[in-house]
Amino acid sequence: MKEIKEARTEPHAIDIEMAVLGSMMSSQQALYKGLEMLTPEVFYQPNHRIIFEVIRDIAEGAAGIKRIPDLLTVKDELERRGKLEEAGGAAYLATLLEEVINPEYIEEHAKIIIEKFLYRKTIEICNKVMKECYDEKKEAEEILDEADAMLFGIRAYKLKGGFIHLKDLLRPFFEELTHIMEGRGVELPSGFHELDLLTTGFHKGDFIVIASRPAMGKTSFALNIMKNLAADFGKPVGFFSIEMPKDQIVQRLLCMESNIEMQKLRKGEITPQEFLKLSEAAERLKSAPIYIDDTPKISLQELRAKTRRACKEYNLSAVFIDFLQVIEAPKMETRQQQIAYISASLKSLAMELNIPVIALAQLSREVEKRADKRPQLADLRESGAIEQDADMVIFLFREDFYEPYTSEEGVAEIIVGKNRNGPVGTVRLGFIKEYMKFVNLSSLERGETEFL
Q1: Is the dihedral of CA 166, 169, 175, 181 positive or negative?
Q2: Which end of the chain has less neighbouring CB within 10 Å, N or C?
Q3: Contacts of 65 (CB under 8 A, 6+ apart)
């Protein structure tokens, strides 16, 4: 295919850059908003970058004395640095004051400058990727990983929220409080009463980690919560199963919903009555808004893209990932750096989409070396960044995993080891291993038929 080249000018808005710089030299309101939102590199013209640097340095005292950066002080500082001509000269500085805008509009103008900058950076990245693709010196997957890392990097320039008046925050708070007081519960409950009392459920924008040693039941616990959210509360949820195929996910969901043993289901050794129970469970699950992706070795780039698309198509309330350490990340010097990158990306994704992102994680073998094998935050495998980025860390511990004849058989401790917005503590749940099912312990002890 013949390549068609067209000379095109990169996106820019010189007149708006001039207006912003002029306003920053004539209004303190415009000055502080401009310094809050902009950096030198977002400007298209090199001389505008120089002028902005000087305005910033004068305002912050980096030029030797903290002053208001008006036309005269900016001109003097440019002369002192020997950059007045490079910045366009004294006459050009004076023309900037002719473009002054109302300080109330400075934020919108700054947004346009940043938008044009993001267009240019994206074009730069795309051109670099195109060149590497034509060169064919790297594997395609490596090029994609590098592109993903570069694109993620420019998200740092994505517009951030500024100050919001307290009155605008009070209304949603009281709406949520009224919601709870009226008995409708938290917005995104786990379905386990005591856990929800401790955590007040899952919250929008939170990055939540569910961690344990292998075979402790963290996948089953996540599936129980997912099923509760979707089937009992009608909340659409997504589930990334990176190591377990979707047919096994379906088996587990059917077992916990029908109370039929997993082994019997796998062997096909079920009675007509049990088959009827399975059919009834399937009917209930059919209407549950559950969406499953079992792409093996999924890259972080693909996971983020699929989550964004699913949120748009299905209006997801939460996303589960099983599990964090098997997500493919761009190549870095150490595994710890990769895990830190994944962790930060998932937290960023939760905030961007305003949904809880719930990721499962493996714990290190250090747990097994202690007499008390209850997990601790230090046990999070390969990176302390997970602990830092997570808003909530939930550990699973079952004493009967280590002591088969314990009096605590069938009991799971759900340990909230970190809760950025609330208390930590431990909740005890029943775990019916044959059904891969967690239940409220009080209900199990009462012998309710729902759980038998």
Answers
A1: negative
A2: N
A3: none
Q: Which of 110-114, 194-198, 261-265, 437-441 has the highest mean pLDDT?
A: 110-114
Structural domains of the chain sorted by starting position, each given as residue range(s) with its CATH number in brackets: 9-163 (1.10.860.10), 180-451 (3.40.50.300)
Residues 250-268 have a mean pLDDT of: 82
243 counts as catalytic: yes
Rounded mean pLDDT, 410-414: 85
- Two tokens at 389? 């980025």
Q: Which two tokens stand for residue 93?
A: 């500085």
Among the listed residues 108, 243, 434, 445, the single catalytic one is 243
Q: In this predicted model, which residue has the larger pLDDT, 435 or 7?
A: 435
pLDDT tens digits, one per residue of 311-328:
888 999 999 998 888 887
Alpha carbons 70 and 40: distance in angstroms, whole number: 18
84: tokens are 């007045």
Q: Which of 55-69, 115-129, 266-280, 400-414 has the highest mean pLDDT?
A: 115-129
Residues 6 or more apart from 193 whose CB is under 8 A from it?
440, 442
Give the tokens for residue 318. 């939460």
Residue 187 forms beta bridges with which residues?
none
Cβ neighbour number for residue 44 with a 10 Å cutoff: 18
Q: Is the pLDDT of residue 2 over 50?
A: no
Query: Position of tokens 């070795």?
Result: 297
Q: Are 389 and 343 in contact (CB under 8 A)?
A: yes
Sheet holding 207-212, edge to edge: 290-293, 237-241, 318-322, 357-362, 207-212, 392-397, 411-419, 425-432, 437-440
Residue 353 in contact with residue 308, Cβ under 8 Å? Answer: yes
Q: Do the bridges between strand 290-293 and strand 425-432 make them parallel or antiparallel, or are there none, so unpaired?
A: unpaired
- Rounded CA gap, 230 and 221, in Å? 14
| Residue 287 exposure: Cα atoms within 13 Å on the Cβ side | 8
How would you class 360 by CB atoms within 10 Å of its CB: exposed for 0-12, middle for 13-18, buried for 19 or more? Answer: buried
Cis peptide leading into residue 221 (ω within 30°): no
Residue 163 is classified by DSSP as -
CA–CA distance, 106 with 80 (Å, rounded to integer): 29
Residues paired with 208 in a beta bridge: 358, 392
Write down the mean pLDDT value for the chain. Answer: 83
